[in-house]
Amino acid sequence: MSSPDLAARIRDFERELELRCSTLTEPTAFGTAFLNLDFPLRYDSNFVWVDRPLRGVDADALAADADRVLGEHGLAHRKLYVDDDLHGSRLAAAFLDLGWSAERLLIMAQVREPEHRSAAEVSEQDFAEARPFLELVLRRQPYADSEEAVRQLTEIRGVYEREAGARFFVADVDGQPASVCELYVLGDVAQVEDVNTLEEFRGRGLGSAVVLAAAASARTRGCDVVFLIADDADWPKDLYARLGFDPVGRFWSFVRTPS
Hints:
This protein has helices at residues 3-21, 59-72, 85-97, 127-139, 147-164, 206-220, 236-242; strands spanning 24-27, 31-35, 46-50, 78-82, 101-110, 122-125, 167-173, 176-186, 189-197, 225-231, 245-256. The longest helix is centred in the first third of the chain and has 19 residues, at 3-21. The model has no long low-confidence stretch (mean pLDDT 96). The protein folds into 2 domains: 3-108, no CATH class; 122-248, Gcn5-related N-acetyltransferase (GNAT) (Aminopeptidase), CATH 3.40.630.30. It is an alpha+beta fold. The termini are far apart. The radius of gyration is 18 Å and the shape is globular. Helices cover 38% and strands 31% of the residues. Helix 4 packs antiparallel against helix 5 (147-164). The chain has an 11-stranded mixed β-sheet with strand order 1-2-3-4-11-5-10-9-8-7-6, sandwiched between helices.
């Protein structure tokens, strides 16, 4: 399967996933707002997906569009995804000047056998079983800066379990949970998401173990496409490459956090 075909199937998966996990969608000037106002502190559940032609469109116009639709719903943050890598690259500097962050994201699909495997034991769990460890992981994240944020960022996983069969893959060290990732499945496409290893257990191959366990589970469920999303400027993409994942596309995320 060619990279454009893979990328198209993955973007279709992502749109369907957002539709299922949103309580409201609204057209905007340049795309669609996906909203779940039960979780207003989760940026990934309340954003504008920009997928319309952007020739001649500047960052000010996109920011104003996000201000309007997200502001109307009382959201304090602003978030945009820009599908087109070329336009995202063109707009990045201007968004930075506006006080937003700009992140180029890499879509990677597992198209090869892993170069190595981990011997760590991994268990597959449902949300109720994994929840205490997910809460622990989230409390260590800088963006989960309140108990309400931890609650929302945890409970959204129940929505993903209900709407996308989310499963949680946990590696233990001496009986203590140490690393986790999530798996979402819709039809024959699966996404590995939110790979996290507690700092004191890093460097033991646990992240590799949970990713490979999740990918293997997806294959047994009939998925012929397994993908994940990585920061194009950060080191984990190199780890995922060693696990058989190759780049098939790029897009941009622009975020303005509350002041």
